[in-house]
């Protein structure tokens, strides 16, 4: 008898517009991938979604944030495996720190952080596909299950 697939992983991510540019991170050490995403990460049991998001954003960017309303729920999975993740995105604002290219993620996951204009978003690989629309909108979005991209 095979064991059941693990429950979906929950993660939180920040939509941070600063001077009308979106803060994104590359979480692939040593340039393994050119895929960009919003800062954030996995939720630790016993901490609120917002506490997890504050911790993750600070680890990945060195920034302190105030967290606003949720704006996107995105799901992705590995169709050939058991991985399934649900990301909850929140609108956030920077309250402290600087976007410093020399910042080192203590976990060593994020290697690059950068602000992108809406026009620049069209020339990079980013997930989820709806990220630019979400960032420059006041609406709430749901992205149904999509295959994981590396």
Secondary structure topology:
Layout: E1 9-18, E2 21-26, E3 35-36, E4 40-42, H1 49-61, E5 64-77, E6 84-96, E7 112-116, H2 118-121, E8 125-126, H3 131-135, E9 141-147
Parallel strand pairs: 1-6, 3-8, 5-9
Antiparallel strand pairs: 1-2, 1-4, 2-7, 5-6
State the low-pLDDT regions, or none: none
Query: How many strands, what sense, and barrel or not for the largest sheet?
Result: 7 strands, mixed
Radius of gyration computed on alpha carbons: 15 Å
The secondary structure category is mainly beta
- In percent, how much strand structure appears in the residues? 35-45%
Q: Could you say which overall geometry the principal axes of the C-alpha atoms support?
A: globular
Mean pLDDT: 91
Task: Quickly count the helices.
Answer: 3
Oligomer: single chain
Overview of this protein structure:
The chain is globular. It has 3 helices and 9 strands. It has 150 residues and is mainly β. The strands form 2 sheets. Strands 1, 2, 4, 5, 6, 7 and 9 form a 7-stranded mixed β-sheet that branches. A two-stranded parallel ribbon has the order 3-8. Helices cover 15% and strands 41% of the residues. The protein has helices at residues 49-61, 118-121, 131-135, and strands spanning 9-18, 21-26, 35-36, 40-42, 64-77, 84-96, 112-116, 125-126, 141-147.
């Amino acid at each position: 008898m095979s064991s059941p697939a693990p429950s979906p992983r929950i993660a939180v991510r920040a939509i941070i517009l600063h001077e009308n540019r979106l803060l994104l991170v590359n979480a692939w050490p040593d340039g393994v991938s050119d895929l960009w995403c919003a800062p954030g990460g996995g939720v630790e049991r016993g901490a609120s979604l917002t506490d997890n998001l504050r911790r993750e954003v600070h680890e990945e960017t060195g920034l302190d944030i105030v967290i606003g309303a949720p704006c996107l729920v995105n799901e992705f999975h590995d169709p050939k495996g058991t991985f399934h993740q649900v990301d909850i995105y929140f609108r956030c604002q920077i309250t402290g720190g600087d976007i410093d290219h020399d910042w080192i993620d203590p976990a060593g996951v994020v290697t690059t952080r950068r602000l992108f204009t809406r026009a620049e978003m069209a020339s990079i690989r980013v997930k989820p596909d709806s990220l630019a629309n979400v960032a420059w909108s006041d609406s709430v979005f749901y992205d149904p299950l999509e295959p994981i991209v590396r």
